[in-house]
Design brief:
The chain is α+β, with helices and mostly antiparallel strands. It has one domain: Lysozyme. Helix content is about 35%, strand content about 15%. The radius of gyration is 13 Å and the shape is globular. The two termini are about 25 Å apart.
Length: about 100
């Protein structure tokens, strides 16, 4: 549960602090916040995913106009399921947070 709370705070932090992180800097932040082994994934997996989907850019956005959804931030959080961007029809906003 603590790691989940840390992940939520980390996601909020990286969204508010518009920044492109360096690989080692991002890995240190993730490690400090208890992400090693979170949900069965190694720190290397989390870092690799962030590098692949956003290049560690906290303001990275992708838009799929055909599916009418967008993804936001380092982990490309979907507006369809996890956050509210005010533009995605039928969104569930599972985290109860804005995408911005």
């Amino acid at each position: 549960m603590k790691a989940l709370l840390n992940l939520g705070l980390l996601l909020l932090f990286v969204t508010v602090q518009a920044k492109v992180y360096e690989l080692c800097e991002f890995a240190r932040i993730m490690n400090k916040n208890g992400m090693e082994g979170y949900r069965g994934f190694s720190l290397e997996n989390w870092v690799c995913m962030a590098q692949f989907v956003s290049k560690f850019n906290s303001k990275y956005e992708t838009h799929n106009y055909r599916k009418k959804l967008s993804s936001y931030g380092i982990f490309q959080i979907s507006s369809k399921y996890w956050c509210d961007d005010g533009h995605t029809p039928g969104a569930s906003n599972g985290c109860g947070i804005p995408c911005s």
